């Protein structure tokens, strides 16, 4: 299952969890091995949308992503006999998607928009701070390291965050992230996978997974903050200096 | 834990806290570090808001889920491939 029950910050999304009628992995694998077409159609319908979004993380067009999903399913059909049950079936399938998409993504030499480079330390994979140091009081100040310019509340909570414009803003921020960050945050936050599963799918360490997720979320939050700042200016509200 | 509830707050700078948010939200901090974060946000509106906004950000990200279903042609092709492979 994508979400561990003890995952404090996590939550399951309706579309990231296989529909309840999907049988458990061992049964499902047995059905697929036995050539049960209904079971195959069920997993194809349940998992393809998520696989498409995962593929889209690596390749530059929707068409390529659709081809990756197709190619991955064909590899699943050919390779189901090699599924050893050491991960969940869905994780195994997602790894195939990631490998397929990565190969194709390499061929397409996806270009990262220049805007993703941003100011130093903002969105890179490097080790810089994820919040602009200028927002904190400098050394020598009595409260050094504390907010000079704290965040201001966002409008909300629900209606503003559900607005299509906000989602578009976040989707754009996602698209501009460095590839590794984009993959991790897509799996974690868009699809609701837990940290262990993301490590397992991408074959990265727990520490690496966390750093990539951390930087990605900080960048997306910053983008939203700027968006709400602009919206406040547009509405003629006082914005912090 | 109750016996430590009265311990003095171990101060953490806001600039440090913002780098712990992800580990905090994942429940990955060791108990001492988690305690420092909880202590800090209990006293600091700015950091409380920051943590909250990261959470809100993940909520918006969750709203992007859905993806695109297979085209009927792709789906039929897959089912045909499956039939062939097991036939």
Automatic annotation (TrEMBL), chain A:
Residue ranges annotated for the RNA polymerase sigma factor 70 region 4 type domain, each copy included: 168-218
Keyword Protease (UniProt): no
Residue span(s) of domain RNA polymerase sigma-70 region: 44-109
Annotated keywords: Sigma factor, Transcription, Transcription regulation
Pfam families, per database record: Sigma70_r2, Sigma70_r4_2
InterPro entries the UniProt entry points to: RNA_pol_sigma-70-like (IPR039425), RNA_pol_sigma-70_dom (IPR014284), RNA_pol_sigma70_r2 (IPR007627), RNA_pol_sigma70_r4_t2 (IPR013249), RNA_pol_sigma_r2 (IPR013325), RNA_pol_sigma_r3/r4-like (IPR013324), WH-like_DNA-bd_sf (IPR036388)
GO MF assignments: DNA binding; sigma factor activity
GO biological process: DNA-templated transcription initiation
Chain spans, region Disordered: 1-21, 105-126
Protein family (similarity comment): Belongs to the sigma-70 factor family. ECF subfamily.
Record-linked PANTHER family: ECF RNA POLYMERASE SIGMA-E FACTOR, RNA POLYMERASE ECF-TYPE SIGMA FACTO
Protein name (record): Sigma-70 family RNA polymerase sigma factor
Organism of origin: Jiangella aurantiaca
């Amino acid at each position: 299952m994508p979400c561990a029950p003890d995952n404090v910050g996590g939550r399951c999304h309706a579309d990231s969890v296989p529909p309840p009628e999907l049988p458990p992995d061992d049964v499902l694998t047995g059905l697929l091995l036995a050539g049960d077409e209904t079971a195959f159609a069920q997993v194809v319908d349940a998992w393809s949308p998520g696989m498409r979004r995962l593929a889209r993380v690596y390749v530059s067009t929707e068409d390529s992503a659709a081809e990756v999903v197709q190619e991955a399913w064909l590899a699943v059909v050919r390779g189901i006999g090699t599924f050893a049950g050491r991960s969940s079936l869905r994780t195994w399938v997602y790894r195939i998607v990631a490998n397929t998409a990565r190969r194709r993504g390499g061929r397409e030499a996806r270009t990262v928009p220049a805007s993703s480079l941003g100011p130093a330390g903002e969105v890179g994979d490097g080790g810089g701070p994820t919040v602009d140091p200028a927002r904190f009081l400098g050394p020598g100040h009595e409260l050094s390291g504390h907010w000079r310019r704290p965040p201001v509340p966002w409008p909300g909570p629900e209606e503003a965050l559900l607005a299509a414009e906000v989602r578009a803003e976040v989707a754009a921020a996602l698209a501009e992230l460095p590839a590794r960050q984009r993959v991790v945050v897509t799996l974690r936050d868009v699809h609701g996978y837990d940290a262990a599963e993301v490590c397992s799918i991408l074959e990265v360490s727990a520490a690496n997974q966390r750093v990539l997720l951390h930087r990605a979320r900080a960048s997306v939050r910053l983008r939203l903050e700027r968006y709400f700042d602009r919206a406040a200016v547009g509405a003629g509200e006082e914005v912090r200096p | 834990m109750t016996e430590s509830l009265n311990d003095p707050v171990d101060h953490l700078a806001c600039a440090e806290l913002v780098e712990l948010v992800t580990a905090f939200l994942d429940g990955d901090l060791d108990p001492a570090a988690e305690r420092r974060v909880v202590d800090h946000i209990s006293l600091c509106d700015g950091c409380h808001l920051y943590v909250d906004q990261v959470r809100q950000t993940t909520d918006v990200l969750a709203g992007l889920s859905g993806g695109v279903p297979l085209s009927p042609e792709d789906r039929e092709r897959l089912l045909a491939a499956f039939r062939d492979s097991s036939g």
